[in-house]
Amino acid sequence: MSATESVKLAPTNRRFSQSVHPNNPRLQCITLSAGALAEFESQSSAWDVQAVEYKPFLRFAVANALDEACGGELSPLLNAIVQNREQGAFLFDYQGTPQAEASDFHVKLSTAISHLIGVPNFDAMHGKFYARFTVRNKDDSDSYLRQAHRRMELHNDGTYVKERTDFVLMMKMKEENMEGGDSLILHVDDWQDLDKFYNHPLAKQDIQWGSPPSKQVDYKVHHPVFFEEDKNGKPHMLFIDQFAEPQNMRQGLYLHQMGESLEAEENCSNIEVPVGSMLVMQNHTWLHGRDKFMSHPGLERELLRQRGHFTAN
C-alpha cells in the first residue's frame, strides 16, 4: 500500500481539505478554510496567549475549539496521519486572514494542532511549552539552529533530553528578505543505507548525548541511535550529529559515517513552509533539517517550535 493510499484523503469541504505534497508523497497537506479559521478565531478569542501559557488545561480547550470548527473531523485525521508510519507528517496551513494580531493567532493555532495529537514537552531553552527564535544574517550562538548560511543537517529532535519526543512541530511566524532555507525531510524507510546502519553491531549500543549551554539542559543521556521498534518491528531513530558524544573510535566513526550517508541521501526532500504554515512530523520515523539561506543584510525569519509526546486524543 502506498503512502497516498494508507490514510484515505479527506474530500474538500467548507472546513478543510487534504492533498499530497508534490515533493514527497508521504507528506500530507492540510488546508483550513477561511470559514473554519474565522470560526476557530471566534471561539478562542476570549483566551489570550498569556492565559494559554499560564493554564495548561486551556490549551486543550483551544484544540477543541479548532476541532469543533472543523466539525470534529480534523482530530481523527491528524492522529491517523501521525500514527501511520507510511505517512507520519503533514504540512498545515490556512486560507483567509486572522483578525487578531498574527503572532498571537499563530501561537494559538499551533497550540491547537499540537494538543490534538499530544502534549508538548517543556522547552528548557525558552522556559515555556513552545519556543520562538529568530534567524538573522549574522549569528554567534552555540548551535546550528540560528546559523543562516550553512545547511542544518538531517536529525531527530529530543536526543539529549529524558522526555519522550514523539512529534515535532515547526511553524514559520514571519520572514523578511529570505531566499532559500527550505525545510529538508527524510523518512527513515526511504534512507537507502538504513539496513547498513540498522544492522551494524553498534546500532543498539548506548551512545552518550549532551547539549551546549544555550539548551539549558545540565545532564547527559544514554541511548542507542535505533532505540526501539514500532508495533510492526520497524526501527525508530534518535540521531543528531551536533550533540552525540562518542566515547571511543568505533562509536565516532559509526556516527560520522551515518551523518555522511544521510547528507548524501537522494531521497531527501526540500519543502517550502509558507508564513503561517507549520510542518508536523513523527519524530522517530522522520529526520528533518534546513537548507542554507542566501546572504542578505536584512535577512530575518522567526520560527515557533513545539515538540512532545503522543496522547490518546
What is the H/E order?
HEEHHHHEHEEEEEHEEEEHEEEE
Mean pLDDT: 90
Question: Which radius of gyration do the C-alpha atoms yield?
Answer: 19 Å
General form: globular
Uncertain regions spanning at least 5 consecutive residues:
none
**CATH H-level name... which superfamily?**
Clavaminate synthase-like
Please tell me the total number of domains: 1
Distance between the termini: 26 Å
- As a percent range, the share of strand residues is 15-25%
* CATH architecture heading: 4-Layer Sandwich
**Do you know the CATH topology?**
Double-stranded beta-helix
Number of strands: 16
The level 1 CATH classification is Alpha Beta
Q: Into which percent range does the helicity of residues fall?
A: 25-40%
How large is the count of helical segments? 8
Largest sheet: 8 strands, mixed
| Secondary-structure-derived class | alpha+beta
What features would you describe in this structure?
With 313 residues, the protein is of the alpha+beta class. The chain has a single domain (3-188, 264-310), classed as Clavaminate synthase-like (Double-stranded beta-helix). It is 26% helix and 25% strand. The chain is built from eight helices and 16 strands. The protein has helices at 3-6, 34-44, 49-54, 56-69, 74-83, 102-117, 194-198, 249-263, and strands at residues 16-20, 28-32, 89-94, 118-120, 131-136, 152-155, 167-176, 183-187, 207-209, 221-223, 228-229, 235-236, 269-271, 278-282, 286-290, 300-310. The strands form four sheets. Strands 1, 2, 3, 4, 5, 7, 14 and 16 form an eight-stranded mixed sheet that branches. The protein has a four-stranded antiparallel sheet with strand order 6-15-8-13, covered by helices on one side. Helix 4 (56-69) crosses helix 6 (102-117). The relative contact order is 0.20. The mean pLDDT is 90.
